[in-house]
Write a structure and sequence with these properties.
Elements lengths: L2 E6 L8 H5 L2 H7 L11 E9 L8 E5 L4 E9 H4 L2 E2 L2 E2 L4 H22 L7 H18 L4
């Protein structure tokens, strides 16, 4: 099991979403490789940081031809850079990581539940995978 990461984020110095997302390469080494023979698919993750006005919705899909589970996640720009009293107040990198961790973990958990009977291995190893993911996320300060 391996991970492919991408992002769609503003280029402003206040947005750390892309850099934080790259931390999931360590997740691949620490967690995903353990499941290579148990969950025989790749995990594709895209973090998007977009304004609420775009009305973009997170998505998940299993790509049979590529044998990959895709998760397209949304971090709303207004959450990580709130506008208060006439000024933008971007959150710190650590605060943005906590928001991303919550979004990633909750979406991954929902996705694994949704595909429990549709993707080989998830019905047997899905709960263990989510537990290992939770441990990694806590250890790496994503929650």
């Amino acid at each position: 099991m391996k991970i492919d990461l991408t992002s769609d984020t503003p280029s402003g110095k206040w947005c750390w979403v892309s850099e934080i997302g790259d931390e999931l390469y360590a997740y691949e080494q620490d967690v995903l490789l353990k499941y290579t023979n148990k969950l025989p698919f790749d995990l594709w993750v895209c973090f998007r940081c977009l304004p609420k006005a775009y009305e973009w919705k997170p998505k998940r899909r299993f790509y049979k031809d590529e044998n990959a589970l895709g998760m397209d996640l949304l971090i709303e720009e207004e959450i990580i850079r709130p506008f208060i009293d006439g000024r933008y107040h971007p959150l710190s990198k650590d605060e943005q990581r906590l928001i991303m961790g919550t979004v990633f973990y909750n979406f991954l958990t929902e996705t694994i539940k949704k595909y429990k009977n549709k993707i080989p291995g998830i019905s047997v190893y899905g709960e263990e995978f989510i537990k290992d993911t939770h441990v990694w996320i806590l250890e790496n300060k994503w929650l």
